[in-house]
Design a protein that fits this description.
The protein is an alpha/beta fold and about 220 residues long. It has ten helices and eight strands. The chain has a six-stranded parallel β-sheet, with helices on both faces. A two-stranded antiparallel ribbon has the order 2-3. Helix 2 packs antiparallel against helix 3. The longest helix has 23 residues. The two termini are about 25 Å apart.
């Protein structure tokens, strides 16, 4: 069901939880490059399906999946270290927020609505960015490595709600992946599917499992 700005402003929720990659930030090109370089150096062809699977798993479980699927001799630690090395410079200099995101987040916080980041990324990537200040935008940042569970389980969203001091029933989760939306919904959160402008995203399926959908953050600028 198409949802326009009035459904998200003035907001009826007390806490908002945001995914990072694709949802609030333009990073699809970075991770595609990282995956292509990593897999290509091992003679493996990159696919959009691989990108979809890794977006749920996070670094450590994604490394194990990659090793098991392609029979690599690398250890999990070596894979994570290479992904981090390949992505770090690009994150530091190239990551930007999607248009309208910063204005929306700051407007929510001005109203006293708590905002949290829930991401599968490693903390050093998020805190290294030159053009995005996570501490300005979010009351709490929760990372997949802290909760020890992928995004097809609700642990990361529940932890974000706990840190904000808001019950899941009073929170909304903004996500661009189907498993995350399903997990959040099952834990009692309202959910909003966000168009990631990424060919690896199955937009129709993502919308089917969400309460709301959003194609442009600029629609929410007040």
């Amino acid at each position: 069901m198409p949802i326009d700005a009035p459904c998200l402003w003035l907001p009826s929720f007390e806490g908002a939880i945001f995914d990072f990659d694709g949802t609030v930030a333009v990073t699809g090109h970075i991770w595609k490059m990282v995956d292509q370089v990593f897999l290509g150096s091992r003679g493996v062809e990159y696919t959009d399906e691989y990108a979809r699977i890794l977006s749920v798993l996070g670094f450590e479980r994604g490394a194990r999946y990659t090793i098991d699927t392609y029979g690599l001799s690398d250890t999990e630690e070596e894979v994570v270290a290479e992904w981090t090395r390949l992505s770090h410079a690009l994150y530091r200099s190239d990551v930007t927020l999607r248009p309208g995101v910063r204005s929306y987040l700051l407007s929510l916080r001005k109203l006293g609505i708590r905002c949290a980041l829930a991401t599968s990324n490693e903390p050093e990537l998020i805190y290294s960015m030159e053009h995005v200040d996570a501490s300005e935008l979010f009351d709490a940042c929760v990372f997949g490595c802290e909760v020890g569970a992928p995004k097809d389980q609700p642990a990361i969203y529940l932890e974000a709600a706990r840190r904000m001091g808001v019950s899941p029933e009073r929170c909304i989760v903004f996500e661009d992946i189907e498993p995350g939306l399903l997990a959040a919904h099952g834990a009692g959160f309202a959910t909003c599917a966000v168009w990631a402008e990424d060919p690896s995203q199955d937009w129709e399926r993502v919308c089917d499992v969400a309460d709301l959908r959003l194609t442009s953050w600029e629609n929410l600028i007040i």
